Q: What sequence folds into this?
């Protein structure tokens, strides 16, 4: 499936359907800033979960912090519930190398020790540098390393994808 043919809204509906199967008692949603946070917010509205979803940033635990510095999402971690003993369902828009997921898990453990952490993503584009695998991905694609796929959201809350060329 080509990235240009990805229908973000259809993939969201598929993600919603399959995330339901990953829910268990004491499950809380935590969206990875920013696309994952948008997805978690919308999933929270459509799933039978109490409370509100959390948002987590990878900025402070990235292994490339020295070259990237603080990003715009650095101060966006908001976890309005106890982490200790919870089943955390991490939600992200695009999984690539796994480095963001690793950083987010480190950030999560700064807040407590969850009972479990499960990852669900909208798109898995391969290219893993770390042994991280989602429990569910709505789509798997191959995209050249020099291209970046990111989720966009319009004023009405509808999702689409953007593809940008990355600097070499």
A:
């Amino acid at each position: 499936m080509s990235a240009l043919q990805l229908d973000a809204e259809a993939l969201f509906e598929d993600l919603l359907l399959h995330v339901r199967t990953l829910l268990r008692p004491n499950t809380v949603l935590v969206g990875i800033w920013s696309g994952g946070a948008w997805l978690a917010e919308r999933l929270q509205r459509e799933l039978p979960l109490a409370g509100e979803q959390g948002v987590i940033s990878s900025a402070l635990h990235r292994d490339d912090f020295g070259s990237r510095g603080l990003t715009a999402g650095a101060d966006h971690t908001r976890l309005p519930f106890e982490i200790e003993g919870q089943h955390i369902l991490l939600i992200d828009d695009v999984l690539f190398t796994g480095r963001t997921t690793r950083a987010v898990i480190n950030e999560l453990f700064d807040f407590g020790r969850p009972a479990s952490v499960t990852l669900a993503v909208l798109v898995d584009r391969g290219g893993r540098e770390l042994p991280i695998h989602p429990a569910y991905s709505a789509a798997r694609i191959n995209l050249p390393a020099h291209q970046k796929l990111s989720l966009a959201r319009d004023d009405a809350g509808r999702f689409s994808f953007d593809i940008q060329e990355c600097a070499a």
